[in-house]
Amino acid sequence: MVIEAIHAAEFLITQGISCEVLDLRTISPLDWQSVFNSTAKTGRILVLDTATTTGSISGEIVSRVADKCWEILKCAPQRLAMPDYPESTSFALTANYHVRAEHIAEKVSQMLGRKIDTGPLSMQREHPHDVPGDWFTGPF
Predict the structure, then answer these.
(1) Which of the four CATH numbers 3.30.1360.180, 3.40.350.10, 3.40.50.920, 3.70.10.10 does domain 2-123 have?
(2) What residue segments make up the domains of the chain, in order of their start?
(3) Which of 51, 70, 81, 97 is deepest in the core (most CB within 10 A)?
(4) What's the per-residue H, E or C state across the chain?
(5) What tens digit of pLDDT does each residue of 93-120 get?
């Protein structure tokens, strides 16, 4: 999710919105102090996860931030993760399965109460949503 977060942050800066991207790299041990420090800077946190929404580390992070940083939060902690069902193999059904930079930018704009057009961000994509890049040659 770090690459998508960076793309979203680069786009959001053009909209006058500055974001900090924190790559935790490990979840055990998890660098809680960095999470709390980052949250304290803006009073907001959006946690991104490549796992399903239910039972993922993002839920634990949101819970701990709400518990430890409640007084400084300007809005509810948010998270974006995969749906709680297996990924389909259909091109049409996978269109919104994976969290993309445009989804992140939309969520950030909602958290700030601002409306932004994420169309230009979506248009930057060079490959279909189910192809990571030119380097991908299979397994299909």
Answers:
(1) 3.40.50.920
(2) 2-123
(3) 81
(4) CHHHHHHHHHHHHHCCCCCCCCCCCCCCCCCHHHHHHHHHHHCCCEEEEEEECCCCHHHHHHHHHHHHHHHHCCCCCEEEEECCCCCCCCCCCCCCCCCCHHHHHHHHHHHHCCCCCCHHHHHCCCCCCCCCCCCCCCCC
(5) 787 788 999 999 999 999 999 999 988 8
Calpha distance 139→52 (Å, rounded): 23
Given a contact cutoff of 8 angstroms between Cβ atoms, the answer to whether 35 and 67 are in contact is: no
The identity of residue 68, as a single letter, is K
Residue with tokens 């704009």: 109
Length of the chain in residues, anyone? Answer: 140
What is the number of other CB atoms lying within 10 angstroms of the CB of residue 109?
Answer: 17
In whole angstroms, what is the distance from residue 137 CA to residue 115 CA?
Answer: 38
Do 81 and 58 form a contact (C-beta atoms < 8 A)?
A: yes
